[in-house]
């Protein structure tokens, strides 16, 4: 029966393709080929979801080659769209043999294609063109290429899941509708290894014109093991060699052992920071494992790719840079260091192994602490049964509409607004776009001189600025500056850093790791977009002080972690030993008893109600209130913002916040109790969440940064006006754009990517309906203390940061402070911290009541002197008196603490009050507070 089904699939193809199949040695179709080739030959739109290595490319292209072979055409018959240029090159090489055999010309076109090749393609178009979404945008505007595109009958979109969740994909759907205006209807075929909601992605691909979905079970092709390394005596010795602790040494050792046991292993990590930190350890060990990520130069990436492909490297330590099938040869195993955070990422990453030998894909997840282990277990189980997260499609992104209105004007010279609206709303992500929203976007473009709109007319016309705008904005990837990192001594480029990180964190003196080596920042040149660095010889330097945007853990994963905790705790409470509970859980989850037992140990020590999917545990200690809430990243972020905003509004003071998928950690001002937090949860109307969140975002740097990016996509902000010091200030930008589609889009994108208003509203409603229980405890618990902060510095050796502390000390001593006498209010001076006496005293009245303020805080001095004060002036005056009280009690030590970044009187008092053995501990606490401020500054006024 299977044989005849197989024969039937290939029998659908013409004689030329069947002959090529025989020559190539394809005797039996793979499952996706058997199921998908017949409907594709019949001309159906199709989405093929199948593991890497199961012949998805041939599944799509054999029917396309069959339709093209022997046909008479001038132009391009098929487009093959991939999200990466590197995949372009791989795909051309893979398709070249078929082209030669079937007498079809296959070529590639992307941003690096030479002018000569472009001209040649326009005058003598290939039959199949491999390209990127951005290059398709440019091709649609070229007069000769538009003629070549008239013959397009097939478009294949590779890695469609990657595009479906991004604005690049939303832009592509509109580009395909513009292509349809040129070529008429064409067949659309999407390919992916992982899709959580294939029918939704099918609509995304086709504009909801019907789509045959062929989905092959991915989970059954996986062999995943979750493992927490056991620390050995050898790890204690290795720890001293690597200047780290024994736990980290065990992780490094186990990864090295797994790599050594296989021929070629990809080691995936979640952040560039972790890649660099682990890479430096492997370098110390002398292993043949190199680092690969997007911040390295193109030459550095290609070099390690080639070394891995030829077998000179046995392991490649990489981030998502290796997820999308770049050809690095045969891979027989994948290691994932720490939880992959999402089911789709685990499937995508582990799916890269084993297929060249028709083997099941094998992978090992190395975990580091209980959160990590429980999360990895939940993700591995969901992966095996195929529970993949849905694609997070960008519906109605207005800057994409702006971009494509300009594209349509470039295509036609002029177009009626209603015709443009009809074309835009044919694309699935824009089917519900309101006509008024569309008009507001057109008017904004006209005001920004991107297009011409005659007052009272329906026609949108091209103007002088249209061409420049469109080609500057071919990509929907945010136009964020990339700073080159250069070695001061040699002038060589080390790598790159994103603008967001440089603006927020890269200060002279900071130490970070890149390409496995440590560097100290000596200068940041914003005009030249360069960060100049010098190498750090001391191997005790630390990982970068900034933390990349975390991969958000979905609600479903967090809920299962809560379920595992609850089940484990119930069994432990029944006087069942940890070993027996661990043994029981190994029947459901792919881990050994030791790994699960180590995670269960946290529950065995937890003497309080266990937080779970339907129980929040609120714990409090001093000014810390922690909600143990298993709702995932985006819901917890949203709930945290609501609580911070409402509690802060009630007290007039700021509320500090950190979240992870299982906790919302608040630092509340004096006078706020845990009962206030509970009342806020129980009394806040769920339908008010959206408005509260929007108000809280107005103080957040995230919104202002996003506004600048979106404004650039609307042509409202020239690139030279962006940056941290140019043109528009952030506050002015917010005020100028608040009632525009630019503001609407910036807010929509933040809510889409980082927050979950609907989910948070549902949680509040469930709390108020009694469906989610709230338990309280007046202490910190093992589960509550096991959050992100317990593991974020895992790769940094404890207290092995002497050079960093010395840098912080030198920076603060060289900083200037404003000293102001609050007794006579007649004396003030600005001087370096190093020149401040041990007990500052007013030279005029002799008082020691001296406020130490920022050197630019003249308005505070002015506020103190005012006899009648408004609320803001009163707040500044109180702050000055608190600072003066500290200086009076603690002298220069208080001046030093108050001179640190983001350390006000309250936090300075906390730092000073701690008992310490040496001065370095004092500066270490200041550094920790500065980093806390850097992470949470969007929640502070």
From TrEMBL:
GO biological process terms on file: DNA repair
Organism lineage: Archaea, Methanobacteriati, Methanobacteriota, Stenosarchaea group, Halobacteria
One Pfam family per UniProt: DEAD
Domain Helicase ATP-binding: 37-213
Family recorded in the similarity comment: Belongs to the Lhr helicase family. Lhr-Core subfamily.
Domain spans labelled Helicase C-terminal: 250-409
UniProt GO molecular function: ATP binding; ATP hydrolysis activity; catalytic activity, acting on DNA; DNA binding; helicase activity
Keywords of this entry: ATP-binding, DNA damage, DNA repair, DNA-binding, Helicase, Hydrolase, Isomerase, Nucleotide-binding
Protein name: ATP dependent helicase, Lhr family
Organism: Halorientalis regularis
